[in-house]
Write a structure and sequence with these properties.
It comes from Polyodon spathula (North American paddlefish). Keywords: Kinase, Transferase. One of its GO terms (molecular function) is kinase activity. This is MOB1A kinase. By secondary structure, the protein is mostly helical. Helix 1 packs across helix 3. The radius of gyration is 17 Å and the shape is globular. The N terminus is likely disordered.
């Protein structure tokens, strides 16, 4: 997806899937189908594969993509320019992770996204939630954790589109952003992973992306 040296600037360290693992093979499969340009096809569960594993691999991939996309615009997303975490005037997000911060707090977008990406990173690094070893089963609550991660990652896309699209265009990153977001949306739609209400801030865009592809 990303070319040029600026794209090496990620917001958080990239999460690597170990080479030689089955998940790595799945990621390669996903990249190959993506390369064919048919995003609807690229999100479909490959035959004979485990749904949890497919969702895990793609969740890591979306984390890495958003990491890069947000990394390119961090200098424009400041305590001053984005004193609240919003996606347009009608949607404002307050942070809570249920463990360290139980009661939702109002914070600036950079602070919120830092909390969010750190939280996602902690989930992805937790071997009991995201087992990287073959044969280690996924926990019973895996699907609900994955849904929460994807719901929160969506908010970073929503913030970038609503508050920073001008910067994205100046950096000529809009094709990357659109392809990444379209892939993300097709994926969550395919497996029904994010509640429609949560997608409301970008509903128009989602419909536009979907209609081009029917």
């Amino acid at each position: 997806f990303f070319s040029g040296n600026r794209s090496s600037k990620t917001f958080k360290p990239k999460k690597n899937i170990p080479e030689g693992s089955h998940q790595y093979e799945l990621l390669k499969h996903a990249e190959a189908t993506l390369g064919s340009g048919n995003l609807r096809q690229a999100v479909v569960l490959p035959e004979g594969e485990d749904l949890n594993e497919w969702i895990a691999v793609n969740t890591v991939d979306f984390f890495n993509q958003i990491n890069m996309l947000y990394g390119t615009i961090t200098e424009f997303c400041t305590e001053i320019s984005c004193s609240v975490m919003s996606a347009g005037p009608r949607y404002e997000y307050h942070w809570a992770d249920g463990t360290n911060i139980k009661k939702p707090i109002k914070c600036s977008a950079p602070k919120y996204i830092d909390y969010l990406m750190t939280w996602v990173q902690d989930q992805l690094d937790d071997e009991t939630l995201f087992p990287s070893k073959i044969g280690v089963p996924f926990p019973k609550n895996f699907m609900s954790v994955a849904k929460t991660i994807l719901k929160r990652l969506f908010r970073v896309y929503a913030h970038i589109y609503h508050q920073h699209f001008d910067s994205v265009m100046q950096l000529q990153e809009e094709a990357h952003l659109n392809t990444s977001f379209k892939h993300f949306i097709f994926f969550v739609q395919e497996f029904n992973l994010i509640d429609r209400r949560e997608l409301a801030p970008l509903q128009d865009l989602i419909e536009k992306l979907g209609s081009k592809d029917r």
